[in-house]
Amino acid sequence: MKVLIVGNGGREHALAWKVSQSTLVTDVFVAPGNGGTEQEPLVKNIPISSNNIEELAEFALNNKIDITIVGPEGPLVLGITDKFKSLNLNCFGPSKGAAQLEGSKEFMKDFLIRHNIPTATYQSFTDASEAITHIKNIGCPLVIKADGLAAGKGVTVALEEKDAIKAVQECLNNNIFGKAGSKLIIEDFLEGEEASFIVLTDGEIIIPFASSQDHKARDNEDLGPNTGGMGAYSPAPVVTEYIHNKIMNEIIIPTVQGMRNEGLNYCGFLYAGVMIDYENNLKVLEFNCRFGDPETQPIMMRLNSDIAKLCLEASTGSLKEQSLEWKQEVSLGVVMASGGYPLDYETGMEIFNLPPETNLTKVFHAGTSFKDGKTLTSGGRVLCVTALGADTTEAQKEAYKTVKRIKWDKCFYRSDIGYRAVEREK
User: Fold this and answer.
1) What are the backbone angles phi and psi of residue 18, rounded to the nearest 5°?
2) Can you name the CATH fold of 2-94?
3) pTM of structure
């Protein structure tokens, strides 16, 4: 079986690495891939942008690709699945219509309200003065979100009025997120603990993955600006069996059924960011129409089941009810980033002391390139150092042992990934 994976980040490296372990798979292509995928056995990078749907479809046709797995949200929102299906190509990911769950915060929030799925109270705005008046009327804390795709950086948790107003002005007046920020959502601040809950579905059958928790804030103790994610671990202790079932029954099943009822059958990965309060009440923070990054890395480290087979079955209507097989260990990934991220940062730095893969650790690449035998930085989030351990404490120690060996000019990382779970274990 030939597999094409679309994307160039840490998520796509982890998917390519896991897919290449399938006994059914002979070739794995990644478009465009990165320095890590270029060095994986059985994996070949293809120099086609993840948003160049026409060229990707032509490549899939010419190379008789059996299944295309779409990593990032961009091509899904642009309609890559619709294009591939029109050419009778198997493509795993939601349609353009269904991908609006991530492509528009307003669409998502309206959908949740229509289907009585719990979420924070909100209002949408296109006029900065109206948004600021709203902020002054209701007070902080509040959460300000760009309506469109902003690579995980379009969210501001504003504890004070001045921060909320600044976020509105940057989004609507200064256009720092471009078209994605031409509209914004202002919603209530929710307290509790956040978890990532990801499933695979063909629109009817739903197969949940192990729970995970990521750290979106740049700095220790979840402070500082939001990023695409500074690390993650799996499983998330807050997602007990009771909470797992509650998320499935109150959020995931109603969402998949609601999409189908609205004529938008959802086939693909579905990611729910869920806030769990101290009385075990749930609210949806966000939906993503793909696997999370960096959650993919620790989840793939723990997964024993064949992800390529699952994606093919879902995209061809042959998916069956089943439970996935998991390693018992905890997995934890630490993102190493370029100095200045998520704002301005330099690229082209040589990375030193990259270790080989072991049974316990794997370094997944995100913003890297491989040139003349050297691995160079090419993005903000550069690596995700992922490790297994008997518990979160051990996995954390193992990951940071490797992190401290890897060097490049101006690299930085959080030193507390998994701290909530570690505290629980004490």
Assistant:
1) -70, -45
2) Rossmann fold (3.40.50)
3) 0.93
